[in-house]
Amino acid sequence: MKLFTITSFLICSLIGVTFAQSKSEVLDYKDLLSEKKEEVHYQAAEENKNEIESVFSGLFMVYKNFISSQDGSNCVFYPSCSEYGLLAVKKYGVLMGTANTMDRLTRCNGLSPEKYSWTEDRTLMIDELK
Amino acid sequence: MNSIKIKSSIYFILIFNFSCLISVISQAQTVSQTFDYGLNLMELNRPKEAIAAFQRVLFFGDEDFQKKVFPNIAECYFLLEDYATASRYFDLAYFSASTDTTKTNYTFKKIESLVREKSFLFAKVELLNLPDNLPPTLSNKKLLYSGIIHYGLGEYDESKASFLQIVSEETPQMTIIAAFSKLEKVAKISPKKARIMSMIVPGLGQFYAGDVRNGINSLVLNGSFAYLTLQTMFNYSIWDAAISILPWYQRYHMGGYLRAEEAAYEKIRRETGEIFQEIIVTVASAQPTSQKTPTQSATLNK
């Protein structure tokens, strides 16, 4: 019994010397270089109150997924012109919303930076729907 | 009027004397009490409040307290996953430490913070700071960090050598070698090639990078614009096409090849990450399941 205790103690201490860290400690680094792909979430396309809003939200999602996704980052504003357009249609209706969107599109050129505040990373000008 | 003045001055003197008496009798929290309070907060897993207490100790305490406070603040930031600040405080702890053992411990903690922050280059510098003659437990830890850091820096041969030294059995060693050989395939993925391919045929670069959905999307979109450009050219004039459709075509064509390059980079990062996961799992499988060495965090605050 004594011999068994001594031998097991020696084995245990040897294991302690051989391994630097436990399995869980090593596994802690497993996801160090894995990048989690963040899903793009468009709040503007949510909570549609009627069919017209649903149609415009659908068109917006099609545009975002199939057309805008193939484009570079050209819009200078936050929120982007498409998001602004959808929000405008939702708030003011189709006619006034379209007019608002047209107005926004004519301003989307970055020629008057002094008129807008900037996002935290200083990449986009803030122009929220009023 | 005079009696009111006398009364108010008597009240003032009484209140003043009373407050002086209270301040003499009662004692404010001492620096060591604040330090203990910080330790208690740490034990209660409230690192933010603990930092505030330790900062007080740092302000009012003498140099001896600095030695105790720096590692604890560093540990708090580490718990808050603010690894950049944690590594800075571990650095201060390193310079205020008096023994080599504690210095080594803080260097390890600093390396851990830098690795988690993905500042592999700085972590490599710290790795060189470690002494050559370490006890086996720590030398294995050093090898693990060396493997991770070299991998993060793209120095795969050095990384492989470090990981192989940790694992002594043949089977996991073979798995690690096989995993590293997969990296040769990843190294062949060229973002530049993807970009050029998409310049020639829109969408081709995305297919090359394994992004089929965006490849088809780019091909269809650019095909439509090319068709519209040609239609306008034949039906109207080349100038009409140049003014109306060509800018759109150029915009999405350019967006397409830039995205193809991005997709290739993403593929490289994803596959490198997957191989790294495989290596770490293999290395972990060769380690004991429950044994945990006494980490610095357990001994730091004492």
TrEMBL record, chain A:
<dbReference type="Pfam" id="PF01809">
    <property type="entry name" value="YidD"/>
</dbReference>
<protein>
    <recommendedName>
        <fullName>Membrane protein insertion efficiency factor YidD</fullName>
    </recommendedName>
</protein>
<feature type="signal peptide">
    <location>
        <begin position="1"/>
        <end position="20"/>
    </location>
</feature>
<keyword id="KW-0732">Signal</keyword>
<dbReference type="InterPro" id="IPR002696">
    <property type="entry name" value="Membr_insert_effic_factor_YidD"/>
</dbReference>
